[in-house]
């Protein structure tokens, strides 16, 4: 039975591929509270994307369960938006039509669609690019379209898979600040996957640390910085360095092992 205030519950879930020969993650227990921003960090291949897809109802776990609002998830659920690691844009649609897509699918009125689309395109700094197609945009811009599209449906749960991985360092800082503000303003429940320990500490209420072989949640760490957060003040705090070192020490063994694996013999 989940604790009160739990929005998402991953209950002893495992996901295997290729007739059980690939274990994406095993025996994951994870609870995300209402209005919480939970970050997940972990090395490449530890099952982060697969876990997020299970939470979003796009994949079924091989065993265990995923629950949202105490209901088992079997398929994509209304009110849950996903920002995909590789954008997931429709290449034959313009920026505006991509952002409008979910709203139109939900049967929103034309005026509401127009209003939301222009609001969220402005929010992610893409005004002027409404009529462009994805191939005419940089990777970072495509990622912003994905973010605008997810926000436009006003979800109560936002699942984000490395949404800022392909933007330049300065843009990333701007988007991190915008995400912090959005979270303060709208208090959605968010799951945010990142490779960046710094990003996870800056954004998260808690950080789940995943390790590989097979993927599992090793620890869920409370972050504790009050909101609203000032990124510069958070980074300058001594607790920030402690958290950073702690998480890095958890991840280091698998990351180092992987780096050696990649060396040519
Ligand atoms: N559809 C699939 N079929 C077979 N194996 C898969 C499939 N999807 C994922 N895997 C495997 O499951 C494991 C976890 O993959 P996943 O994409 O979830 O990792 P990740 O933590 O998101 O990695 P990254 O940080 O590189 O995005 C990997 O070994 C991957 O090869
Ligand atoms: Mg991934």
Describe this structure in words.
With 265 residues, the chain is an alpha/beta fold. The protein has a domain at 1-79 and 190-265: P-loop containing nucleotide triphosphate hydrolases (Rossmann fold, 3-Layer(aba) Sandwich). Helices cover 39% and strands 25% of the residues. It is built from 8 helices and 10 strands. The chain has helices at 48-55, 95-105, 110-123, 139-152, 169-186, 197-203, 231-236, 238-262, and strands spanning 6-17, 22-33, 37-41, 63-68, 71-72, 80-83, 157-161, 189-194, 206-211, 216-222. The strands form 2 sheets. Strands 6-7-8-3-9-10 form a 6-stranded mixed beta sheet, sandwiched between helices. A hairpin with a 4-residue loop joins strand 1 (6-17) and strand 2 (22-33). The longest helix has 25 residues, at 238-262. The protein is globular, with a radius of gyration of 19 Å. The chain starts with 5 loop residues before the first strand and ends with a helix. The model has no long low-confidence stretch (mean pLDDT 92). The structure holds adenosine-5'-triphosphate and magnesium ion (MG).
